[in-house]
Amino acid sequence: MIRKGVTVTLALTLALGDAATPRVQIHQFKFLPAQLTVPAGATVTWTNGDEETHTVTATDRTYTSTGLEHAETFTRRYTQPGTYTYFCALHPHMTATVVVR
Amino acid sequence: MERRRFMQCLAWAGTGLVWAARGGVLSATTLEAAAEAGADFTFAQISDTHVGFGGEANRDSMGTLKDSIESINALQARPAFVLHTGDLSHGQKPGAFDTLAESLKAVKTERIFFIPGEHDVALDGGKEYLSRYGAGTYESRGYQSFDYRGVHFVGLVNVLSYKPGVGGALGDEQLAWLRKDLEAQSASTPIVVFSHVPLWAVYPAWGWTTADGEQAIGMLRRFGSVTALNGHIHQVLQKIEGNVTFHSARSTAFPQPAPGAAPNPGPMKVEATELRRLLGVREVRYAEGGRPLAVVERPLT
């Protein structure tokens, strides 16, 4: 009984953890996943896994990270539902999308 | 010179050869011969200083910048001026422009001309860069031309175009300005055009190209001598196209792989002893009388 309770709590925590801190990895000049869907109010965290510097910059330039070095992160909270496209301002062929539901 | 010989010379370009091109005919001479030939003036090119870079490819990029400045100051002929062909900063790190300005005070020359690289403008669309370096350029847009002892110099900006899916480009307004600027020059005037991203398609898959660069090159074809200098790709690379000679410069901060030689164009890690051979500056000599400009590579070691 106790054991089952622990399992449920852990699973719940992990699920909530994923929803609350959705992540995008920057790897080999790509944003992974290229499309990320999150609930309104979610905070997305990007981590640069490359040696090269990258940015997370809104297509309409309403927001941008600074130049992210290796292992540096950038976070942004999305409050309104919609489709948000972004790119790397240093390597503009790197493009991706956050969909907020 | 036949093509095979040309390729052989390409391989030696980093070791002290002077390139000289005239009327589409390429020749290479030793540094000593060039020095004997004399020059009316020389200038230096420094590029991709990336102040703020701290990656593994070079943990001491300020040290190699200092050494690069010293190598300019050690040139036999004091350069009339220096061209900085962009990426002054590494992604506009706070204080980077100030730090660079302070470092460059040590350069023994009359003046330093700048054009931006994408690292200087990516975060704010060029606001900070143009507030510092826009003065004296055309309508404070960053591009400019000037004449020095019979040579016409044109500095172009091809990094303010970056948006999703689109890299280096000059844009219609700048191309119109360039057309007007060049129309005023006679075909016998030697032209030096400098930009950050190469004007020609070095390797489009890595963004090493200027989308509308061909339009600019087209305007330059009628001139008898055109020397096109760029940075961005952190390595020495030449191309001859008729009377136009293209030269990509080394960085003072870190090397990048040869086109297609790595999965991506990120900073290239090499042995410490190798690093200094891949960083440095260049000297360009001009002698009046129809002789072509001589481009001399100056690696740190």
Characterization of the model:
The complex is a heterodimer of chains A (101) and B (301). Chain A is α/β, with parallel strands linked by helices. Chain A has a single domain, classed as Sandwich (Immunoglobulin-like). Helices cover 19% and strands 39% of the residues of chain A. Chain A is built from one helix and eight strands. A four-stranded mixed β-sheet of chain A has the order 2-1-4-6, covered by helices on one side. Chain A has a four-stranded mixed β-sheet with strand order 3-8-7-5, with no helix packed on it. In chain A, strand 7 and strand 8 (95-100) form a beta hairpin. Chain B is of the alpha/beta class. Chain B has a single domain (3-299), classed as Purple Acid Phosphatase, chain A, domain 2. Chain B has nine helices and 13 strands. In chain B, helix 7 (172-183) runs parallel beside helix 8. Mean pLDDT of chain B is 89; it is low at 1-26. The chains are: A alpha/beta (101), B alpha/beta (301). Chains A and B meet through loops of A and loops of B.
> How large a portion of the residues of chain A is in β-strands, by DSSP E?
35-45%
The tally of domains of chain B stands at 1
Write the H/E string of chain B, N to C. Answer: HEEHEHEHEHHEEHEHEEEHEE
Question: Helix content range of the residues of chain A, please?
Answer: 10-25%
* Strand percent estimate of chain B: 15-25%
Radius of gyration of chain A: 16 Å
CATH 4th-level superfamily of chain B = Metallo-dependent phosphatases
CATH class designation of chain B:
Alpha Beta
Low-confidence stretches of chain B: 1-26
Radius of gyration of chain B: 18 Å
Tell me the span between the first and last alpha carbons of chain A. 36 Å
Biggest interface pair, counts: A-B, 23 and 27 residues
Annotated CATH architecture of chain A? Sandwich
Largest sheet of chain B: 7 strands, mixed
Helix vs. strand class of chain B: alpha/beta
SS field, number of helical segments of chain B = 9
Briefly note the structural class of the backbone of chain A: alpha/beta
CATH fold category name of chain B: Purple Acid Phosphatase, chain A, domain 2
